[in-house]
């Protein structure tokens, strides 16, 4: 874990890694579990262009009371949560039932969730902070750890809300490793970084050197804030949402200030949203099978299995034991527990 002496927050960064001054960050970069070299910034790790965009976001973004921020460690169900929040907030304007005459006009059928709920720190990928579709509130997403969010988001005088999604670290690691290797292999990646063997990626993850990691610091930041300010931060687990989507969609809608009515529940609106945003449905849309996102990133890399317990197909017993012990140490006393979910 980094300390304040490990970083120099005022150094300018170029999109060209070679142009980064030697004192940013102190000690230089590490390969890390990412699509490119990782650098430490304010206690977490990120690639150079991302840090430049994060600094711009921190200095210039002004949160509004109506903003809803979707936050997560990469590969924790972010795409799914983006789709769900967009569908819930806009359900009156865009019906989610396949029998509705307006169903075929639903933006999720033709627009990536990453465009509908844009990442606010990646201006080199998404130049605008706003969705291409008007919405009753501004939905935005971030992978930035809680302490590094702009002060306008964190301040108690602004009523914007944060929804945080986390995932069992075993599955999170596997999904992140596979995803980063896909990005490394894409033609749009001009860095020509070779694929990471799972053993090497695992060492990086356990050392905390993964994009926006360490994992435990990221999760604990939002977890503690959700305990202190439950009206401000809603903490959700990917596995719980998979296991009981109806209960957690009701919880999600209530937190966002747009609870489902009894009439909506009786009409099956929650089930319609669940079906529209299901992993299999989104994955099989032409948009997500053949389309590309920004900078030539193929949409299909965001849809792999969406399974719970897939780690058992990859990790050795020794790896599982090591990661379990590490998480027990890092989360000790926090009250946050990750169960070993199996299919």
From TrEMBL:
InterPro entries: P-loop_NTPase, Sulfotransferase_dom. Its EC number is 2.8.2.-. It comes from the Eukaryota. It is an enzyme of class 2 (transferase). Pfam families: Sulfotransfer_1 (PF00685). One of its GO terms (molecular function) is sulfotransferase activity. Keywords: Transferase. Residues 65-335 form the Sulfotransferase domain. Belongs to the sulfotransferase 1 family. This is Sulfotransferase. It comes from Papaver nudicaule.
């Amino acid at each position: 874990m980094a300390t304040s002496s490990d970083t120099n927050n005022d150094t300018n960064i170029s999109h060209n890694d070679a142009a980064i001054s030697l004192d940013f960050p102190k000690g230089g970069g590490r390969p890390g579990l990412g699509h490119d070299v990782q650098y430490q910034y304010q206690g977490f790790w990120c690639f150079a262009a991302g840090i430049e965009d994060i600094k711009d976001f921190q200095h210039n973004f002004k949160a509004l009371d109506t903003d809803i921020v979707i936050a997560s460690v990469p590969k924790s169900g972010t795409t799914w949560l983006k789709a769900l929040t967009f569908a819930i907030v806009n359900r009156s304007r865009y019906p989610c039932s396949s029998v509705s005459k307006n169903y075929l006009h639903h933006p999720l059928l033709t627009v990536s969730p990453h465009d509908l709920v844009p990442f606010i720190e990646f201006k080199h990928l998404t130049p605008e902070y706003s969705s291409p579709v008007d919405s009753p509130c501004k939905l935005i997403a971030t992978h930035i750890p809680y302490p590094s969010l702009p002060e306008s988001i964190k301040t108690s005088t602004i009523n914007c809300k944060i929804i945080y999604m986390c995932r069992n670290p075993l599955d999170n690691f596997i999904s992140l490793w596979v995803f980063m290797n896909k990005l490394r292999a894409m033609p749009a990646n001009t860095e020509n970084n070779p694929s990471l063997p799972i053993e090497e990626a695992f060492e990086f993850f356990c050392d905390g050197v993964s994009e926006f990691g360490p994992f435990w610091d990221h999760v604990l930041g939002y977890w503690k804030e959700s305990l202190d300010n439950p009206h401000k931060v809603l903490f959700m687990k990917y596995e719980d949402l998979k296991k009981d989507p109806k209960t957690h969609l009701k919880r999600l809608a209530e937190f966002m200030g747009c609870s489902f009515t009894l009439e909506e529940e009786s009409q099956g609106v929650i089930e319609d949203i669940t079906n529209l945003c299901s992993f299999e449905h989104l994955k099989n849309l032409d948009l997500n099978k053949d389309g590309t996102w920004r900078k030539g990133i193929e949409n299909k890399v965001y849809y792999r299995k969406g399974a719970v317990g897939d780690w058992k197909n990859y990790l050795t017993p020794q790896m599982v034991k090591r990661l379990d012990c590490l998480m027990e140490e890092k989360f000790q006393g926090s009250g946050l527990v990750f169960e070993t979910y199996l299919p």
